[in-house]
Fold:
Amino acid sequence: MLPHGQPWLDTDGRPIQAHGGGVLVHGEAFYWYGENKAGPTRSRGGVGQRVDLIGVSCYRSTDLVRWENLGVVLPAVPDDETHDLHPSKVAERPKVVHNARTGRFVMWLHVDREGYGKAAAGVAVADRPEGPFRYLYSLRPGGGDCRDQTLFIDDDGAAYHVCSTHGNATTRISRLDDEYLRPTGQEAMAFPGRYMEAQAVVKHGGRYWMLASGCTGWDPNPARSAVADSIMGPWAELDNPCRGPDAAITFHAQSTFLLDLSGASGRASDRAAGGVVAMFDRWNRKDLGDSRYVWLPVEFRRDRMVIPWRDAFDPALA
Structure:
């Protein structure tokens, strides 16, 4: 089991650097991608804290407890100040999916300038889940600003990009092309005026469920939840799904991903019960590299998503 509030260590005994990330289930393994924040934390022009961009890390596991560090699979580009991945820039919320049609692994992430004025999505590809990933370009889905973001693959293989837009006031849902590399133009706007970020999406029981956060920077707030009969909506916003001590501040954490274990196979399913896991980051604004993780099984009760507190993550209960 992995105790919440304590550093989670990789198989080399080092703290896992996979913040704001997500997990890809592929073959007999789980691949956890996230922001590497192992550098010094410093002030960012009066708008918060930052670590100079290092890149996206990847960890591999077959039991969701022991994680092997595969290194930085999408590194910073220090020799080009104009590049989206220069250390002076921002790369957040990386998510990776496998495209069964092309055989490639596709990463989308939020890329930005230090002052968050670019507000775009970056796209990278790899031939293997452990990379290396090749950065392609950045774009703005629908021509609008894009910040916190995630990816969702439906049962038919269609891919969707979900992001905060309109200055975080609205959530944009964009269908991607068959290569998962660009939006098709088919899109929907959800939760206008609700100012949501840290969106995560899963399909369960034939319905679509979203977990998200309010916009309070590194400080926690009550989690948001919603449900829909179609990925494009309409979405019905529900209540804070968290239950237990400090549920009103999401257990001192913020959502990043909903991990669906129902498709895990082989060794990757041996230790998991096949449900849904809500992944959260417990941010440490003074030392972002020491931000920690909270993973909790999700319960679906009638028309509600419920996330009860547990002191540790146990894959056997997920």
